[in-house]
Every structure is written in C-alpha cells, then in structure tokens.
Amino acid sequence: MAMGSVKHALDAAMDAARWAPSTHNTQPWTFSVSEQEICLRADPDRKLRVEDVSGREMLISCGAALFTMRTAMSCEGFEPVVRVLPDPDRPSLLATLRLGAEVQADESIHALGGEIERRRTHRAGFADVPVPDALVEKLVLAAADEGVKLTPVRSVEAVSVIAALTQAAQGVQAQDQRFSLEVIRWARPPGSSRTDGVPAEGYPREAARTEPHFPQRDYAWGHDWGSQTDQRASAATGVVAVLTTRGDSRQDWIDAGQALQHVLLYASAHGVSAAFHTQALEMELLREFMRQELCSGQYPQLIMRLGVTFDDKGSMRRPLSEILW
Q1: Domain locations in the chain?
Q2: What is the C-alpha to C-alpha distance for residues 42 and 251, in angstroms, rounded to an integer?
Q3: Integer Cα distance of 84 and 66 in angstroms
Q4: What CATH code would you report for 133-307?
C-alpha cells in the first residue's frame, strides 16, 4: 500500500465529506488524521441550540458526512473500516474510519461518488415531472442498506397531515424570536463571502406554493433576497417521504444520516433532488404525534419531498483547512 495513495485517499475522503448536507448548511463537523485513520467529531459550536436542543440534527448531518467519506474511500480503492461511537468517554468523537484492504469499487459506488459535489438541497416546488415508482423503491432499499426505513407517503390524507404539521410548526417558530434569530444567523445576504449557511441564491425569491403547502424557512427575513424562479419550475409537491428508525439513540441518529446521504446521492444520480422539512420534528409534541399516528411507532428523523428540478444552483463549503484539526 503506497503511502502516496494512502494520503490521497484520506484527503479525498475528508474533502468529499465537506459536501454532505446539514441543517442550514451549518457543516457541524471536524476531522483529524492519525496514520491511516480519520476521526470524525461533532462541532458543538455549530449546533443549533434552539432548533436542535438534543443535537439530533447535528448527528444526522455528521452521519451524512460519514457515509460520504465511506463512499469516497471506496472510490479511491480502499475498503472503509468504520467504528461508530468508539469511545463513550469522548462523546464528540462520532466515528473513526480506517483504510482497509484495497478493493475495486463497482459502478454503483462510483455513481454515488460522482454525485457528492453535484447534489443540491432544493427549497421550492418541483417541476411537474413524476418520480418513477421503480426509483422510489430503489431509494427505499438504499436506506435499508443502512438499517433505516424510508417510507414514501402514498396516502393523500397522510400527506395533508404532514403538510399541516409542517405549517403549524413553521407558524409557531416564526413567532418565536429565538427561532427567528437562529435562522437569521445562518442566512447569508447577497454577495456574502461566508462559506457556510444558506446563500441568498439558495432559495427562490417568490416560491410557487405547493398543494398541500409545505412551507420553507424564511431565510430572507423581510429582505428582497432569493434567486429568480426557473420558468420550468412549478408548484409540484413531489413524493413525500419520511426517514424513520426503530430507536432514538445517538447511534440511530448517525445511522439516519448515513441512510439520508445514501438516498440523496442515489436520487441525484437519477436526476432527482430533495427538499427537507424539519420544522415539525423540532417540536417534541408534534414529533411524538407523528411517531404514534403516522410512523407505526418508529421515530421520524427527517421529512423530505423528492422531485425533479431544473435549478442549477451553486453551493458553498468551508475549506478543509478550517475543519481539519
């Protein structure tokens, strides 16, 4: 195993992990390297202290970064050897990844790897183009590979209930100054040089209203921010899906993040994007209602809409030098 290829594989894995999704693009992770092993840690300074009191969303984001590193290592020709939560005395240490045996990744892994930097979060309605049922079933299998359940919500009534819960949570949060100030902290005005948060071009200035209505965060906060709406876009809701786990431990949250990124990369490789709605899951009463009434007792970790968009927005990530310790 050549040292040059080892260093290249480690660097490639950490560089790829920067592109994982995170709530408000907080990028709440740091990395360190020792010989042939990467340590993935949560960055508590980037935790959303109002929206994410438990740290659940932070660990889901870090789990997505973990899956990204696994994929990148495989694409570089090494089997990733992963230990999740390896040291109970160091709770911020979420995982270690070591380069294992040299392997030849198959086309499916390379297809996922090719989407790491291309995948984008969508924050509006989708084009009126259906997502094939066969693809949705593949996404269900992708989540299952990580021990997590992805459930497409086929019932019109259930979709309406989830939309109503999202509306209720967004309405309450919009009236809470603490929530509003936290969103503002991560909203970036036009021309900002920051490499984290949600840029002004990352959402439409005037989003078409989906039916039923799934509200987005108000990142503009009264300003005339946002991008021009693509004329090919519409108010299509897309396929509503819920990511759930049997338990609700830190391990479950990390697993949910790995499943999320597996689903997103597979979807992106087939021209499908995701819009996220975490508002209702940030309010414990609404989350528990969903668990009992809509999720068969499983714990909802993420609500998303899947669809086709013709937007080609850029994205921003912190340089590796800022997150490598």
Answers
A1: 3-119, 133-307
A2: 13
A3: 9
A4: 3.40.109.10
| pLDDT, averaged across the chain | 94
Rounded CA gap, 100 and 32, in Å?
18
Secondary structure (DSSP) of 90-151: -TTEEEEEEEEEE----HHHHHHHTTTTT--B--S-B-S-PPPHHHHHHHHHHHHTTT-EEE
Q: Over the range 62-74, which residues count as b (16 or more CB within 10 Å of their CB) and which as e?
A: bbbbbbbbbbbbb
CATH fold, domain 3-119, is: NADH Oxidase (3.40.109)
Give tens-digit pLDDT for 26-58: 999 999 999 889 999 999 999 999 999 999 999
Is the pTM higher than 0.85? The answer reads: yes
- 3 state DSSP class of 55: coil
Instruction: Report the alpha-carbon angle 108-111-113, nearest 5.
Output: 115
In the chain, the amino acid numbered 307 is: G
